[in-house]
Amino acid sequence: MPPSFKLFPVRKRDTLTSSWSGGSTTEFFIYPAGALYADRDFLFRISSATVNTDTSVFTSLPDYNRILLLLDGNLRLIHEEYTGNTVRVHHESKLMPLEQDFFDGGYKTTSLGMGCDFNLMMRKELHGKMEVLALQKEEKVTLQANWVNFVYLISGGALVCLNKQNQYIIKDEMAVILSDSGIDHKAFTVAADSDSIVIIGAIDTVVM
Q1: Tell me, what's the pLDDT at 185?
Q2: pTM given for the model
């Protein structure tokens, strides 16, 4: 079933931050309600993480696909997969700020370098994507609504709007979660109140 919320603002100061082997992670949103990352019973999770060690190994999540978008620093990700008793490198990605990598959470992923990233984890039956938009002051874009959409503010400020009753101004790295469940809309808008950089994300049950 789709989420029942309409417009769900998430303030970074209200989120949960915990440690992992390479740094810390801040969970913005996890679905369904009551799911726990540690129990691996979630459908999707939106978070950010810091990588504070030169070399670290990501937590294995074999039931999930991941999209990692680098916010600052630089990272080299090496993804290895196991075939029987053989280990081979599936692919490597060298990320600079605002570049991203899609990979299977079941890979053994080694990270080289340090930085801060933004993450989408989703069950493999779901499909997701993220893109970065640079908006000038007073610029407005109209975007297609999916099962779930989210907006993460990297810099600046913006108004996210479904309709007059469902709109929210995001500032200070807040994320906004959207859904078309129970709402008669097929699009939403993001309007910048200053020069802004935002991440637009989408999750759906079909390929987008």
Answers
A1: 61
A2: 0.90
